[in-house]
Specification:
Helix content: 55-70%
Order of helices and strands: HHHHHHEHHEHHHHHHHHHHHH
Number of strands: 2
């Protein structure tokens, strides 16, 4: 409804339908981080193609432009968007930070973030032009070579100056470029979310800006060409065929988790997260030795990756190497004392070794972190039986059944100790 009310301001014949399609296309593609840039995008569209405000060469209002107060109204009418996006941004940031997804300045220093942002801007353009070596996750590179950063900065600065210099002659060029730069700001890494340096999915909305530049730029380049129509049709057919082949090639990597993760490792370096994920996928296929190798690679790259410590510990339990499993679970808990699964798995390993006091402690810690962890309630009850604490065991079996009424193992264990 707000989109439609905004469209009603448009008085140019033939523009309403175009704007309606474009705005709802954006709305359909809009991923949550991009939502904060919506007021900015609407202001760009006010300048072009709507022409709701213009500036003369002297910097004042042109003869055909609206009074200055109308320009202020363009901002005022977007206050609801600004309020909603501000609230969404704060909530999203707090949720991500509470979940541990927001990287600290100690792990990702601000100068590293700026360098990565500059290079990522150019990398996204490169992947749009030549979409090969696409990856599920691009690992954070840390410090980048100075010539990469300098080259990216000079390229971005040159295009920006060119767009500003020709803003009146080619308004679509400036709007498309500012669209690209502006809509990427929330996800360019200045606020680091997760371990990735960049992500292809972040470009769904920003690349619309570059496509605007291409869609209006190509006819401008070929407008004096005698065979413009034939040439553009030929170029379009060739590009569509190329992109069809590339899409077919990319889809093959998405057959299953193993093919996807292996491809990602082929086109990236030191990708400890994907090594860990591939190990997990292989472990689910009972390919434990291969899984252990990938977990080990993840820990070689990042010895402080607690998830890989936990996963390799689980694999060692399956191989009966309990001492090595305990070592890795303990390492995981040193890195993250509130790692629920590591507490649970360490308790399993200690229970298998007959170290019931340690098992009770870590099952209890897992339940402190997640009181509704049904398996931990059931397993704690089993260990308490070994210690002769039947009343406490019954309480935990009952809790497991309260959480999961269909938990047959907990029901059997409860009936066993209640049997006269």
């Amino acid at each position: 409804l707000t989109m439609w009310s905004y469209i009603r301001y448009v008085e140019r014949p033939g523009v309403k339908r175009y704007l309606l399609i474009l705005l709802f296309f954006i709305l359909g593609l809009m991923v949550k981080p991009m939502l904060v840039t919506l007021p900015f995008v609407l202001l760009l569209m006010d300048y072009w193609p709507l022409g709701r405000f213009q500036f003369s060469r002297s910097g004042g209002a042109g003869p055909d432009s609206q009074p200055p107060s109308f320009s202020l109204f363009l901002v005022w009418e977007k206050i609801p968007f600004i309020v909603l996006t501000a609230a969404s941004s704060v909530i999203t940031f707090l949720v991500q930070r509470s979940g541990g997804a927001v990287g600290s300045l100690e792990i990702f220093p601000i100068h590293y973030r700026i360098m990565n942002a500059l290079v990522s801007y150019v990398s996204y353009i490169g992947k749009m032009i030549w979409p090969f070596n696409l990856a599920l996750l691009y690992p954070y590179p840390g410090k980048l070579p100075w010539w990469h950063v300098s080259g990216a900065f000079l390229l971005l600065l040159s295009i920006s100056l060119l767009s500003i210099r020709n803003v009146r002659r080619f308004p679509w060029f400036a709007v498309g470029w500012l669209w690209y730069l502006g809509t990427l700001v929330p996800v360019i890494g200045l606020v680091q979310i997760g371990p990735q340096a960049m992500a292809d999915r972040y470009t769904y909305v920003p690349l619309i800006g570059l496509f605007i530049m291409i869609a209006w730029g190509i006819p401008e380049i070929f407008k004096k060409w005698r065979y413009k129509k034939e040439g553009l049709v030929t170029i379009t057919v060739v590009l569509l065929l190329m992109l069809t082949v590339i899409s077919w090639s990319q889809v093959r990597y998405w057959r299953n988790s193993v093919t996807l993760f292996k491809h990602t490792l082929d086109v990236t370096e030191d990708n400890y997260v994907i090594h860990n994920n591939l190990g997990f996928a292989l472990a689910e296929m009972n390919r434990t030795p291969e899984a252990i190798w990938h977990y080990s690679e993840a820990l070689r790259i990042n010895p402080r990756y607690e998830k890989a410590h936990n996963n390799i510990g689980t694999a060692f339990i399956l191989q009966g190497q309990l001492e090595r499993a305990v070592e890795h679970f303990s390492n995981a808990l040193r890195l993250d004392p509130d790692f629920r699964n590591a507490h649970y798995n360490l308790a399993l390993a200690l229970e298998a070794q007959g170290k019931y006091e340690g098992a009770i402690y870590h099952y209890t810690q897992a339940l402190r972190i997640d009181p509704d962890y049904a398996r931990a309630h059931n397993n704690l009850g089993v260990v308490l039986i070994h210690e002769g604490r039947l009343d406490e065991a019954a309480i935990h079996f009952q809790e497991a059944l309260r959480i999961r009424p269909d938990y047959t193992g907990a029901r059997y264990n409860l009936q066993k100790i209640l049997k006269p």
